[in-house]
């Protein structure tokens, strides 16, 4: 009898072993950490002139333990369109979300979230959404209405109701993401998009970070006082200068509009929407920080001690201190999410990505905001950690774009990539086995209005960039190796005739390949 039991046990054990071997490999979790308007120059791992002051030890950890993609770009440098591209793997003209000001995202179309959900992933999106229509393809979501607020923000709940939460937007987004991870269906792999409002305008820091950058010298970009010569005439008509358009303008003397970019007091006291959302305690902390600093600046200003350039420099420094402070909270959030994975044994089987919807100008060309195909706003951060697959410390230079994220997620999950998807899976680059990656990228910006950036289209290769501005029928061409700051178009220079012809042909080839509509439609 004893022998029989032992024999049965042995057979059962062998059967189990066999089952274990036949089982499909465990599908990885995908944790997509995302922010709004985070320029790569303010991430230390990217290097550059702010690397020394950028408060990003946790984002840098992803670079050390994974890969930082040095040439990562968006398809259309504006919020909603970038998010729509990420979900669909398609350029704006194919997913229909071409501008922030449109009808909203068409939720009836294919998205990667729907595909992962159907394939058995637990899916969630928390934080900034900005696609106007209610999320589809997510088991759970809790999102800001529109842009959301930094202080004591409102989140839209699954039942459509709006609820206000005490605290700071970045911290609340993290808390909600972690709460969802805690309560998720643990029998399934997960796909979580944790999407911050920060460091978006009006760059309002967590109160604990006020003053963090006061004693740090912040280097200025060479083009802070750009005169827009030698490029398209449209540059000069921009409305995104730290000098003339950041809410307190030199010519307008002391003025406070509804935004609060520089955080100076209005004549009748503070009145920005962010300030008005704060509790009495929060306002006290804010006033204790900004009050004396504003007084000193306004004293110098009133006494005529400051030149026009001094004022632009002061505004730049104040902008950067606030911007970097909001980045500091985002980085802390990344740290908390990585810690959660470590504490719950999830690190090895979770792919972590850090990215942001586009780049941002941090004073280059005298600007804040984005939209242009210039490097600062065209680039998106893209860092990825995947233990066992992505070699730690790698710095790929391949040209990647946000159309590639959806097909990458599909391949990570072992799913087929539909033909309609325009991007390519990054898997060969992640495995370090690529040959024959793309050598050019297509760009299209359609919005007309805010910040007065005209519609423009273009192509970028590793060494050159060609822009076309339909409104003025102008082209500009940059040699990115000799002129990385894009200060001089060489479109009309005889020495660049061949490059100009090659890039113009490439531009039209990409437009055909991506089935782009006629310009002007
Ligand atoms: C707001 C900002 C703009 C910004 C757009 C788009 N103004 O309107 O400066 O360009 O959002 O940003 S603000 O005074 O309200 O901050 S996006 O990230 O949503 O595309
Ligand atoms: Ca954005």
What is the CATH domain class of the largest domain? Alpha Beta
Rg from C-alpha positions? Answer: 25 Å
Helix and strand composition category: alpha/beta
Strand order, largest beta sheet = 2-10-9-1-8-4-5
Query: What is the CATH H-level superfamily of the largest domain?
Result: Alkaline Phosphatase, subunit A
Oligomer: single chain
Shape: globular
Percent helix = 25-40%
Termini separation comes to 83 Å
Could you report the average pLDDT, rounded to the nearest whole number?
A: 93
> What portion of residues belong to β-strands?
5-15%
Which consecutive residue ranges, at least 5 long each, have pLDDT under 50? 14-22, 253-258
At CATH level 3, the topology of the largest domain is Alkaline Phosphatase, subunit A
Using the 3D structure, state the CATH architecture of the largest domain. Answer: 3-Layer(aba) Sandwich
Biggest beta sheet attributes: 7 strands, mixed
Total beta strand runs: 15
Break the fold down into its secondary structure elements and pairings.
Layout: H1 2-22, E1 29-35, H2 57-65, E2 67-68, E3 72-73, H3 79-88, H4 92-95, H5 112-118, E4 122-127, E5 140-143, E6 154-156, E7 162-164, H6 169-183, E8 190-195, H7 273-277, H8 280-302, H9 308-343, E9 350-356, H10 375-378, E10 382-385, E11 400-401, H11 405-412, H12 427-431, E12 441-445, E13 456-460, E14 464-469, E15 474-479, H13 497-513
Parallel strand pairs: 1-8, 1-9, 3-11, 4-5, 4-8
Antiparallel strand pairs: 2-10, 6-7, 9-10, 12-13, 13-14, 14-15
Helix pairs in contact: 6-9
């Amino acid at each position: 009898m004893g022998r029989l039991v032992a024999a049965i046990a042995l057979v059962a054990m062998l059967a189990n072993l066999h089952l274990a071997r036949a089982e499909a490999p465990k599908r990885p979790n995908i944790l997509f950490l995302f922010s709004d308007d985070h320029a790569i120059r303010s991430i230390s791992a990217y290097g550059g002139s702010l690397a020394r002051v950028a408060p990003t030890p946790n984002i840098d950890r992803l670079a050390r333990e994974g890969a930082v993609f040095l040439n990562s770009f968006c398809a259309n440098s504006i919020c909603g369109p970038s998010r729509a591209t990420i979900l669909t793997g398609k350029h704006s003209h194919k997913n229909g979300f071409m501008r922030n000001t449109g009808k909203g995202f068409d939720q009836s179309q294919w998205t990667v979230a729907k595909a992962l959900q159907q394939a058995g992933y637990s899916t969630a999106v928390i934080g900034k959404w900005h696609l106007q229509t209610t999320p589809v393809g997510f088991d759970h979501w809790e999102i800001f209405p529109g842009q959301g607020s930094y202080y004591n923000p409102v989140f839209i709940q699954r039942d459509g109701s709006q609820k206000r939460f005490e605290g700071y937007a970045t911290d609340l987004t993290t808390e909600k993401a972690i709460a969802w991870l805690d309560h998720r269906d643990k029998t399934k792999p997960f796909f979580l998009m944790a999407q911050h409002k920060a460091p978006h305008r009006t760059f309002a820091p967590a109160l604990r970070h006020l003053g963090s950058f006061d004693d740090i010298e912040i280097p200025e970009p060479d083009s802070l006082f750009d005169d827009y010569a030698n490029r398209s005439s449209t540059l000069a008509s921009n409305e995104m200068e730290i000098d003339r358009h950041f809410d307190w303008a030199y010519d307008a003397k002391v003025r406070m509009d509804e935004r609060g970019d520089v955080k100076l007091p209005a004549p009748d006291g503070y009145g920005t929407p962010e300030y008005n959302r704060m509790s009495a305690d929060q306002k006290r902390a804010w006033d204790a920080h900004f009050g004396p600093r504003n007084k000193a600046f306004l004293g110098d200003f009133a006494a005529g001690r400051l030149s026009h350039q001094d004022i632009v420099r002061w505004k730049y420094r104040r902008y950067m201190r606030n911007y970097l402070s909001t980045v500091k909270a985002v980085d802390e959030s990344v740290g908390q999410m990585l810690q959660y994975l470590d504490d719950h044994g999830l690190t090895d089987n979770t792919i972590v990505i850090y990215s942001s919807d586009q780049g941002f100008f941090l004073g280059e060309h005298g600007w804040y905001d984005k939209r242009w195909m210039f490097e600062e706003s065209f680039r998106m951060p893209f860092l990825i950690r995947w233990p066992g697959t992505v070699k730690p410390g790698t710095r790929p230079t391949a040209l990647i774009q946000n159309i590639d994220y959806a097909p990458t997620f599909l391949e990570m999950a072992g799913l087929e990539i539909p033909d309609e998807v325009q991007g390519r899976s990054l898997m060969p680059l992640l495995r370090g086995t690529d040959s024959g990656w793309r050598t050019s990228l297509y760009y299209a910006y359609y919005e007309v209005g805010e910040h007065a950036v005209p519609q423009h289209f273009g192509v970028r290769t590793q060494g050159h960039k060609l822009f076309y501005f339909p409104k003025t029928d102008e082209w500009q061409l940059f040699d990115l190796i000799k002129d990385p700051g894009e200060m001089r178009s060489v479109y009309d220079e005889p020495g660049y005739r061949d490059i100009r012809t090659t890039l113009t042909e490439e531009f039209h080839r990409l437009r055909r390949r991506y089935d782009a509509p006629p310009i002007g439609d």
